[in-house]
């Protein structure tokens, strides 16, 4: 068996990018970033990403400023605008249970699914930013309660999207004989992603989510997480695919790429990085096992919101393509990318890195079929 057969759900790798619908880009640094949180820039970016071969765009939900994100466009409406400007890209709207009810989301996304010919998806996020919840008068549940609510939220969405006369009596949500019409175009329903790495997040993924998104990490650490989730999912008769965050710095030489990383960290907004680190570590420590997405993040890691430097997609196109294949070998199905200068780097990635990844995937597939023939 070759390395590439280790995952139970391997096809061609998928690629997503973070939609910069929140100001300040994806690094907490005062370094120049040629990006913008507004619509015009994001439309051009979505079109460039689609041409470059990206499959998904992940929009973000933030209600308030904090740690360098002064302006934030709302996720569902922004996703819709990007869908209007593209033809193939799938766009993920991020939703926080609490501010949103599953009834509203199910209805809203079913309509967007029709308008976009089946290209909307959802990222259910469970919350890490207590100050944001307090600011909008939303109760802040303790860590595992947030995930218990998110799981019920996802079960409600699936029920509404797939059944007529849907009835549910949960601890957080209740439905009585409810029939949504029209149902979404995508069958059985739009894809459901989730973010988070704590025990509660993993357990939820192994029961209800189609996709599990995790923070950046090394292949070894990712393998431990993925094996754990997949083993549990198998016990539950559930299939979950895995996406990992990576901040990509692809340059013609390794020295240039490493210099960009050093410059990002040199210009880190120290106060904002510490404040962000305190908030997210507090969120993770609040889980019973005292862990979570950012449990072991260093100062340097926290300069990128979701530990994207740790995945180490920093170097030449050839180095990055090989490292992406190493991620696939431990079971990753999707690489979620972030960039310093979004449009130009998405284009570079599409021209220089993606073709190498596809070549390596094709070579591995050929080796695999030869080995099968010989067996
Ligand atoms: C890829 C990814 C995207 C996320 N997007 C958002 C977002 O848009 N808004 C938000 O409030 N939280 C977002 N989160 C945060 C998670 O939903 C979760 O609250 C956080 O990762 C802490 O999870 P944990 O307690 O399981 O470690 C995202 C997380 C990941 C991994």
Describe this structure in words.
The chain has about 375 residues and is of the alpha/beta class. It has one domain: Alpha-Beta Barrel (TIM Barrel). About 45% of the residues lie in helices and about 15% in strands. It has 12 helices and 12 strands. Strands 1-2-3-4-7-8-9-12 form an 8-stranded parallel beta barrel. A hairpin with a 4-residue loop joins strand 5 and strand 6. Helix 1 packs parallel to helix 12, helix 3 packs across helix 5 and helix 11 packs across helix 12. The longest helix has about 35 residues. The chain is globular and about 60 Å long. The N and C termini lie close together (about 10 Å). It binds flavin mononucleotide. The site of flavin mononucleotide (FMN) has 26 residues, from strand 8 and helix 9.
């Amino acid at each position: 068996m070759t390395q590439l057969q280790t995952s139970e759900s391997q096809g061609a790798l998928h690629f997503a990018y973070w939609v910069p619908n929140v100001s300040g880009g994806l690094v907490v640094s005062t370094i120049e970033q040629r990006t913008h949180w507004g619509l015009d820039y994001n439309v051009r970016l979505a079109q460039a990403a689609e041409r470059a071969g990206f499959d998904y765009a992940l929009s973000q939900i933030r209600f308030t400023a904090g740690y360098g994100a002064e302006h934030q466009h709302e996720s569902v409406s922004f996703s819709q605008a990007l869908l209007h400007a593209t033809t193939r890209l799938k766009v993920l709207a991020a939703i926080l249970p609490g501010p949103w009810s599953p009834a509203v989301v199910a209805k809203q996304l079913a309509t967007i699914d029709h308008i976009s010919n089946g290209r909307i998806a959802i990222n259910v996020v469970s919350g890490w930013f207590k100050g944001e919840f307090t600011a909008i008068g939303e109760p802040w549940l303790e860590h595992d309660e947030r995930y218990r609510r998110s799981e019920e939220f996802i079960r409600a969405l699936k029920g509404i999207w797939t059944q007529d006369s849907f009835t549910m009596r949960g601890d957080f949500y209740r439905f009585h004989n409810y029939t949504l019409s029209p149902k979404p175009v995508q069958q059985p329903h739009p894809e459901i992603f989730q973010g988070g790495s704590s025990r509660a997040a993993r357990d939820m993924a192994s029961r209800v989510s189609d996709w599990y998104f995790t923070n950046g990490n090394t292949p070894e650490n990712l393998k431990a997480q993925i094996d754990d989730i997949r083993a549990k999912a198998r016990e539950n008769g559930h299939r979950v695919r895995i996406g990992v965050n990576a901040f990509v710095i692809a340059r013609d030489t390794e020295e240039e790429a490493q210099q960009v990383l050093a410059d990002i960290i040199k210009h880190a907004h120290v106060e904002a990085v510490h404040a962000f680190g305190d908030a997210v570590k507090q969120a993770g420590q609040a889980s019973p096992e005292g862990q979570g997405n950012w449990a072991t993040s260093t100062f340097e890691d926290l300069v990128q919101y979701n530990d994207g430097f740790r995945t180490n997609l920093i170097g030449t196109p050839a180095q990055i393509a090989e490292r992406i294949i190493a991620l696939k070998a431990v079971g990753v199905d999707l690489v979620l990318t972030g960039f310093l200068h979004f449009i130009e780097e998405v284009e570079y990635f599409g021209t220089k890195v993606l073709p190498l990844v596809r070549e390596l995937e094709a070579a591995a597939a050929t080796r695999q079929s030869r080995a099968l023939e010989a067996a």
